[in-house]
Amino acid sequence: MTYKDKEQLFKEEFDISFIPDFGKRLALISLLGYVMSTLRKTHPDASVYTVIKNMESPLYDHEIQALAIVVENFTKGSESFPLFGVAPKEVVKTIKEILNTALPF
Fold first, then answer.
1. Distance in angstroms (rounded) separating the CA atoms of residues 54 and 49
2. Integer Cα distance of 38 and 57 in angstroms
3. Whose CA is closest to 29, among 93, 86, 73?
4. CA end-to-end span of the chain, whole Å?
5. pLDDT tens for residues 4-36?
6. Is residue 64's pLDDT more than 80?
7. pLDDT score, position 71
8. In angstroms, rounded to a whole number, what is the distance separating the alpha carbons of residues 75 and 4?
């Protein structure tokens, strides 16, 4: 598989540019990682996909899948997550706010 083939596959399957701001994408990944690390202490089988789906986000299912896979990949093996100045009690609210900035494509 060539670089171009891989690039096209990534764009088709794992692109999260529906969140228009780069900083918000990074924050979203980190904040979801934080939520998952906290949640998995009591629910080890929890999935990022299910958490996002349960937040009633405006995303289409294929976008939720792409975001969940990216979050799992970026946060795998991590134990600490920057909260970007967000108080722990405000993390879920902030995630929902970021998800609501999604651009429909």
1. 9
2. 20
3. 73
4. 27
5. 999 999 998 999 999 989 999 999 999 999 999
6. yes
7. 97
8. 26
DSSP label at residue 25: H
Both structure tokens of 76: 């795998």
Distance between CA atoms of 46 and 38, rounded to whole angstroms? 10
DSSP the chain: --HHHHHHHHHHHT--TTS--HHHHHHHHHHHHHHHHHHTTT-TT--HHHHHHHTT-S--HHHHHHHHHHHHHHHTT------TT--GGGHHHHHHHHHTTPPP-
- At 41, is the secondary structure helix, strand, or coil? coil
Collapsed DSSP state (helix, strand, coil) of residue 85: coil
CA distances from 103 to 54, 63, 94 (A): 20, 11, 17
Q: To which H or E segment does residue 31 belong?
A: helix 22-39
Q: Would you state the structure tokens that stand for residue 68, as one six-digit string?
A: 């969940």
